[in-house]
Amino acid sequence: MSEHTSPDHAQLMEQILYEVKRVVVGQDRFLERVMVAMLAQGHLLVEGVPGLAKTLTVKTLAGAVQGRFKRIQFTPDLVPADLVGTRIYNQKTGEFATALGPVFANLLLADEINRAPAKVQSALLEVMQERQVTIAGETHQVPEPFLVMATQNPIETEGTYPLPEAQVDRFMMKVLVDYPTDEEEYVIVERVTGPRLEVQPVATTAQLADLQRQCRDVYVDPSLVQYAVRLVSATRTPERHGLKDMARLITYGASPRATIGLVEGARALALLRGRSYALPEDMVDLVPDVLRHRVVLSYEGLSEGLDGDALVARIMKTVLPPAKPLAPERKAA
């Protein structure tokens, strides 16, 4: 493979991003993470207050790649059949027919996932892991590509069911979305109150699947994989990495899914940045997003007012990335 991605792939990603940014103002970091998740075939957990264009971003992206977009508003009275589908009896024919649920989409937005009970959350998380649904003994594959973006509202805890740690681990990244700047908000108001902008399809789901295959070919140096392993290991046994005082603050560290997420994420970010090889900065940029929701704090850690981000930041100061930038020539070796 050449040092840089092929002009066709680079141009296609540029067109997709341009089309989304024509509609969505700001949120560059969030949009970059959505693209990384899509290329790396991971899922996103997004935390942010309402009105920050989370739904608009995913809907616009689906329109740009001509994918099917579905949005599910999670509520306490939801049942698994509302998500995955069910069998319906046809009185005329006397037979049962399968009605597939809204999870059969390319981009699925699970709004306020923590408002639904555990049974419904489990049904969605099973689809995310297996990419298939079984209804009455029949297995149905969800379409490819398939990305789930689940949102959580950080300011409302009344009537919510927090996701268990084992289920949160299924999400490749947890992204925090913040308010726009004053300048961005001015442009948002102008766009929303001005003439309606229609999303132009610039790619197909087949081309997106091709980009995902290209992402798998991005070169990751063994020293970078070792860096990911050491970062994740430091969340489990901090004392082995010179962080003895942190052991009392963590109950459980990250699973091997975190290491895989760091490597796959670095590949996707390198591809987005027009390279066929990953650099340390690609992985470093994603470490907080991949690890923040996987570090379970102890009572001591919580009582000191710490969170996952604070502990990940401490680990990153001690566990350093490979010193030298990785040259593409290393691939030949």
From TrEMBL:
It comes from the Bacteria. InterPro entries: ATPase_AAA-3, CbbQ/NirQ/NorQ/GpvN, ChlI/MoxR_AAA_lid, P-loop_NTPase. Signal peptide: none annotated. Residues 43-173 form the ATPase AAA-3 domain. This is MoxR-like ATPase. Residues 248-313 form the ChlI/MoxR AAA lid domain.
